[in-house]
C-alpha cells in the first residue's frame, strides 16, 4: 500500500529532516584524520537526543542486514558504498566517506545521506561527489506530480552513467513516512514514462550511489552489512527525502 501524506504530516517529516541535516553538519564538522567512525556515531546520537528525536536506524533489522543495526548512522568509507558500520576504524587523510542517517519526530521519519572527503582530497573523489550530487538533483527535478516513477531513475542514470560511473539498482530509494522504509521502491535506473504515477502527497527517499570504476558489480562484506563496489573502487552515496507537492518536489532533509 502507498500512503499519501497530508501537508501537516509533511511538515512533521520536515522537522525530522532538519534533525537529519543537523546530524550531517555535526558529523562533517567532527570528522577528521584520526577520528573513529564510532566517535562520529556518538556525535550523531547526541544531536538526535538533544533534538528529542528518535534514531530510525538503531535496532533496525531489514532483510539486507545480518543483525539489528548497532548505530544511528551508516559510515561508508572509500570502497564501501552503502551501510558501512560505525566501527573503531579511524579516518585517514584523503578518505571519502558517506554518512547516512534517518530520524523521526512524532513517529514520522526522514532519511538523508551526504558524502565528503577528510583531509587532503583527491580531485577524482571531488568529481565523484559532485556528479553524485548532480545525479540526485536530476532525480529530484524529475519528481513531478503527473510524472512517473521511471522518470526519476531515467534522469539519475543519464547523469551518473553519462559520467562513466557504475550504478546498481538493488539498493535504491523508498517511500518514507510512519516507517523509514515504505512502498514504493524508487529505482536508481528506470525507463522514462514507466511505473507508478507520481502524485502530490507521495514522499520518497531518493538515494543514488555511484562506483568510480564504472562497473555495476557490488559485493557484500563479511560483516553482513557493508555493501562494497565489486572492483574495490571508491563509491559515493547521497540521499534526500523529497515530498511531491502540487508545486513540485520539496526537499525535507535540509537545515
Ligand atoms: N538510507 C538507508 C537505506 O534506505 C538506510 C539503511 S538503514 C540501516 O537503505 F539502518 F539498516 F542501515
Ligand atoms: Co534511505
Your description of this structure?
This is Methionine aminopeptidase. It is an enzyme of class 3 (hydrolase). Its cofactor is Co(2+); Zn(2+); Mn(2+); Fe(2+). One of its GO terms (biological process) is proteolysis. Substrate binds at residues 83, 181. The protein is of the alpha+beta class. The chain has a single domain (7-251), classed as Creatinase/methionine aminopeptidase superfamily (Creatine Amidinohydrolase, Alpha-Beta Complex). Helices cover 28% and strands 26% of the residues. The chain is built from four helices and 15 strands. It has helices at 7-30, 37-50, 123-141, 149-162, and strands spanning 54-55, 73-77, 80-82, 96-105, 108-117, 166-167, 173-175, 182-186, 203-206, 209-211, 218-220, 227-229, 235-237, 240-245, 248-251. The strands form four sheets. A five-stranded antiparallel beta sheet has the order 8-7-9-14-15. Strands 1, 2, 4 and 5 form a four-stranded antiparallel beta sheet that branches. It has a three-stranded antiparallel beta sheet with strand order 3-12-11, with no helix packed on it. A hairpin with a 2-residue loop joins strand 4 (96-105) and strand 5 (108-117). The radius of gyration is 17 Å and the shape is globular. The protein binds 2-amino-4-trifluoromethylsulfanyl-butyric acid and cobalt (II) ion. 2-amino-4-trifluoromethylsulfanyl-butyric acid is lined by residues 57, 60, 62, 65, 69, 74, 83, 100, 111, 171, 174, 205, 207, 239.
Amino acid at each position: 500500500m502507498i500512503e499519501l501524506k497530508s501537508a501537516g504530516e509533511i511538515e512533521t517529516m520536515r522537522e525530522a529532516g532538519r534533525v537529519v541535516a543537523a546530524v550531517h553538519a555535526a558529523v562533517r564538522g567532527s570528522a577528521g584524520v584520526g577520528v573513529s567512525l564510532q566517535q562520529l556515531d556518538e556525535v550523531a546520537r547526541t544531536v538526535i537526543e538533544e533534538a528529542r528525536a528518535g534514531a530510525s536506524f538503531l535496532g533496525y533489522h531489514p532483510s539486507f542486514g545480518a543483525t539489528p543495526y548497532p548505530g544511528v548512522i551508516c559510515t561508508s568509507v572509500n570502497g564501501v558504498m552503502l551501510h558501512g558500520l560505525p566501527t573503531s576504524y579511524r579516518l585517514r587523510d584523503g578518505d571519502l566517506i558517506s554518512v547516512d542517517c534517518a530520524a523521526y519526530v512524532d513517529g514520522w521519519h526522514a532519511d538523508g545521506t551526504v558524502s565528503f572527503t577528510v583531509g587532503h582530497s583527491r580531485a577524482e573523489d571531488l568529481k565523484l561527489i559532485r556528479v553524485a550530487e548532480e545525479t540526485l538533483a536530476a532525480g529530484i527535478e524529475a519528481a513531478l506530480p503527473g510524472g512517473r516513477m521511471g522518470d526519476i531513475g531515467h534522469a539519475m542514470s543519464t547523469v551518473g552513467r553519462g559520467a562513466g560511473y557504475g550504478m546498481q539498482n538493488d539498493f535504491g530509494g523508498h517511500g518514507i513516512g510512519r516507517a523509514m522504509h515504505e512502498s514504493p521502491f524508487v529505482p536508481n535506473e528506470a525507463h522514462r514514462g514507466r511505473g507508478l504515477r507520481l502524485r502530490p502527497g507521495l514522499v520518497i527517499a531518493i538515494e543514488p550511489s555511484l562506483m568510480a570504476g564504472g562497473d555495476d558489480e557490488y559485493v557484500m562484506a563479511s560483516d553482513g552489512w557493508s555493501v562494497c563496489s565489486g572492483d574495490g573502487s571508491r563509491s559515493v552515496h547521497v540521499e534526500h527525502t523529497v515530498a511531491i507537492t502540487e508545486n513540485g518536489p520539496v526537499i525535507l532533509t535540509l537545515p
